[in-house]
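Agenda item 2: S-adenosyl-L-homocysteine complex prediction
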Amino acid sequence: MINLLDLELNKLEELLVSMGEPKFRAKQVFGWLYKGAGSFDEMTNVPAALRQKLAEFCEIGLPEVMQVQQSKIDGTRKYLFGLKDGNAIESVFMKYKFGNSICVSSQVGCRMGCKFCASTLGGLLRNLTPGEIAGQILAAEKDTGERISHVVVMGTGEPFDNYDNVAAFIRLINDKNGLNIGMRNITVSTCGVVPMISRFGEDFPQVNLAISLHATNNEARSAMMPVNKAYPMEQLIEACRAYGQATSRRVTFEYTLVKGVNDGPKDAEALAKVLRGMLCHVNLIPLNVVKETGFETSSRASALEFQRILESRGVPATIRRELGDDIDAACGQLRLKARDA
Ligand code: SAH
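Presented output:
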C-alpha cells in the first residue's frame, strides 16, 4: 500500500497520470489529504471510479490517537500516536499568541545518545516517512479542530539523521495546495550533525535552524552528547557561522540548564565567549527531569542569572516558557511510559 501522505504533489501527479488520469486530479486529491480527509469517500469532487481505484492500492496513513494529555493551565496537548507497524510516537500541540504550534517527531527513537534525553534511551527503531511526520500535524488538527500555523521538528529523533524524509516533509507542508505552512514558520532542531548544516542552509534558507549546544567546551559536550565526538564544537560553531553568512538567518542555540553541570556563572561567561560576534539567539531550557538520567533541573534564580550574564555580554537570550508543566511527559517521556507499561 502506498501512503498518499508520503507523496509530494509532483509525485502524486506522476502516480495519477500513470493510472491514466488527468494531471489536475492530483491537486484535488492532495487538497483533500491536507484538509485531513480520512477516507477516499470524502473526496467528493473526485470521480467514484478513481476513488475506488485509489483505495485498492493506496491508503491515507494518518496516525491514530492512542493517548492525549491536556494541560489544564495552557491548553497544551501531548499526543501519543500509533503507527501502522505498532510503533508509537509523540507530538505536542501548543497554543501561543501568534497561533498554534506543533512539535513533531522525525524518528521512532533516536541513536544520538544524549545523556539527559528520554527519547534516545531505547535507541533508534526506524526513520519516519515524510507522510508520517506530516500525519502528526493532520491528526492534531483533526483532534483539536484548530489550524496549526507553526511547526518545530523537535520531538523524538534527530532530523539530520533522516534528512531526505525531513526535507520532503518540509516541502509537503509548505505546498500551497495543502497546509501552506510558511518556511519561516518551520524550525528544525539538530544536535549538531555538522555536514548537514550547510546543505540545509542551501536547501531551506528560510527555515529556522536550532542547534542543541548544551555545553561550552568539547570535554563537557562530549560527556553529555556523544555526537560531539564525531563533530567537535569548533566544527559545529564554524558551520553555524558559515550558515549565518550564507543565509543571513539567525541561528538559535538551545541550552538545557542542568543543575551543577552547565548552569553556573562561569558557564554563562564561557558560552558568551563561544558565541561572540555571531548572529544568534540563545534559548535557555530548564531541564525536564527524566528520572532514568539522574540529572536535576536548574533553579529559577540560576536560569535568570545565566540569562543576565549572556545579555550583558551582547548575546540575546530567553528562558523557554514551560508549557504543559502539569502533564509531565515532555521530551519523549510519554512514549517511554507507554513502552514500559
Ligand atoms: N535531535 C534534535 C531534536 C530533538 S531534541 C536535537 O537534538 O536538537 C529537542 C530539544 O530538546 C534538544 O535541544 C534536546 O537537547 C532537548 N532535550 C532533550 N531532552 C531534554 C530534557 N530532558 N530536558 C530539556 N530539554 C531536553
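Discussion summary: Residues 172 and 248 are 24 Å apart (CA to CA).
Owner for follow-up: CH.
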